[in-house]
Amino acid sequence: MASANKQNTPAAARRAKLEEARRKERARERRNRIITISASVAVVAALVAGGGYLMSAADKQDQAEEKAKSSPVQGERSWDKLTQNHVEKPVDYPMNPPVGGDHNPVWMNCDADVYTEAIPNENAVHSLEHGAVWVTYNDKAQPADIKKLADRVAKTPYSLMSPVKDQDAPLILSAWGKQVTVKSSTDARVAQFFTKYVQGPQTPEPGAACTGGIAK
């Protein structure tokens, strides 16, 4: 009976309670470890899958850009053997807007610059020599197209935009020796022209500055 009474003492009850608490704590820690490990495995799996998706998307983007660069721009006009002399007088260019030829010694700033007024042809041609794409429009261009093209230029180094009231078409894109008329800002050739000719292979002076010139 003494042994039974000893097992029922307050001290024994406290020990039993403490042991039960420890058992529950060990069980809780085990569950937490399982949850942590499972979550880590899920995160790693997601990262691997996500990384694979991102790599696949990047590969597709690279392939699209390479295709744009290697494919001809439909309806594009080209001029060869353009002169590159620096002159400080007006130049009578055979095309409008001009895509090359003699030009002013100072370039028009073309570091994503959008001009709302006409700019000198002679300075803009110097920008083309440095590898810029020049977007121009006349009074017949739709405001929505002007805004969307302005947004693209504003995000693209080595590009500039300005109005040319007497050009034949509402929207024209020009690079050194290259020019295309597009129907709207959503014309697929807009993206292709930018991809192909911003600092493209036609550039006479690749890497030359598009800042530090004239900012009208």
UniProtKB/TrEMBL annotation:
Keywords: Membrane, Transmembrane, Transmembrane helix. Residues 1-32 are annotated as: Disordered. Residues 1-10 have a biased composition (Polar residues). Residues 16-28 have a biased composition (Basic and acidic residues). The chain crosses the membrane at residues 34-55. This is DUF3105 domain-containing protein. It comes from Streptomyces yanii.
